[in-house]
Amino acid sequence: MEQVTLDEIERAAERLVDAFAATDTARYFAAFAEDATFVFHTEARRLENRAAYESLWAGWLEDGWRVVSCTSSNPRIQLLGPTAVFTHDVETVTRTGDGPGETTRERETIVFHRSGGSVTAVHEHLSPSPADSALPETS
């Protein structure tokens, strides 16, 4: 199986984050394999496939939820043959209806895999950033 490249993973991650930031449902979920799994600290259970996450997302949209902005920082990519692990810090502002925006700061891991010539995300894990991650660095 053909190995993934750093450039492919950078582009795949950028497309995924950009689609999320735009609340572009079709483009966002196209970045994931059908059998992708999702572990979110905000959910009681692992989501076993893309359809389960799409259903959750649809419920959020019905409630008037949308992404206002999403900023990725501190990226790291580990290439592992046809698979790659992308980790980054993410700051997201969301809004539901006319309510105030909510800012979350989290750490995210996305596993990408080449299958059938394309690179898609096969797993996403989101966790809250530790409180001390915002402390200034010391010299």
TrEMBL record:
Residues 9-128 form the SnoaL-like domain. Pfam families: SnoaL_3 (PF13474). This is DUF4440 domain-containing protein.
